[in-house]
Design brief:
Radius of gyration: 16 Å
Helix content: 25-40%
Structural class: alpha/beta
Order of helices and strands: HHEHEHEEHEEHEE
Shape: globular
Distance between the termini: 25 Å
Length: 196
């Protein structure tokens, strides 16, 4: 596994080489339709997120976390341009070591990212009644496993303290050859077990 600096350098090079579109991920529309409660949103591995901007436009305060300072600089600049700077806070951190506040977020979102430890901490960060919206790249036949989840792995990690609202165990991403697995779930308002 590469170091934090290696990951940051790799993602910085990628983001510097392509102009941003700031398109929100479709999972944001699903989460908004499900009705997150009031409260802050946490987006993990956000990149230069159109999702954070869309959620801020809907009145949510968004904590956007990514390893790439280039991506976060682009996101901050676009948030300022759109008059959303007061609602989008950017934090540079590696998600293998970032620990979000437990039970603090109305919605925790991550797209096209997978790390089992980060997923466990993300579940713990969702407030009672809040939403978890996560999409990961799926394992492929070519054997690539880094940052890829087994189809159904996201749902399987949820215990009885979650209501699964929608799931896609193995889906082809429109317009690409990528396969993903995703889940949208609501944390029940009753007390959840600490490990989940």
């Amino acid at each position: 596994m590469g170091s934090d600096a290696d990951d940051a350098a790799r993602w910085n090079a990628r983001y510097a080489g392509h102009p941003p579109t700031f398109e929100p991920h479709p999972l944001v529309s699903e989460a908004l339709a499900a009705g997150p409660p009031d409260g802050p949103v946490l987006e993990l591995a956000c990149g230069r997120s159109g999702s954070a901007l869309a959620l801020a436009r809907h009145g949510y305060r968004v904590l956007a976390v990514d390893v790439s300072d280039v991506a976060l600089h682009q996101l901050r600049a676009e948030a300022r341009r759109r008059g959303l700077a007061a609602r989008v806070w950017c934090v540079q951190a590696d998600l293998r070591t970032f620990v979000p506040a437990r039970g603090a977020f109305a919605l925790v979102l991550a797209t096209l990212f997978w790390d089992p430890g980060a997923y466990r901490l993300a579940r713990q960060a969702v407030a009672p009644g809040g939403l978890l919206a996560w999409e990961a790249l799926a394992l492929t036949e070519d054997g690539r496993t880094r940052y890829r989840a087994r189809p159904g792995e996201l749902t399987a990690a949820l215990d009885e303290s979650w209501d699964v609202l929608s799931r896609d165990l193995d889906r082809a991403e429109a317009g690409t050859e990528r396969r993903t697995t995703r889940v949208l779930a609501r944390a029940r308002s009753s007390v959840r077990s600490p490990g989940r």
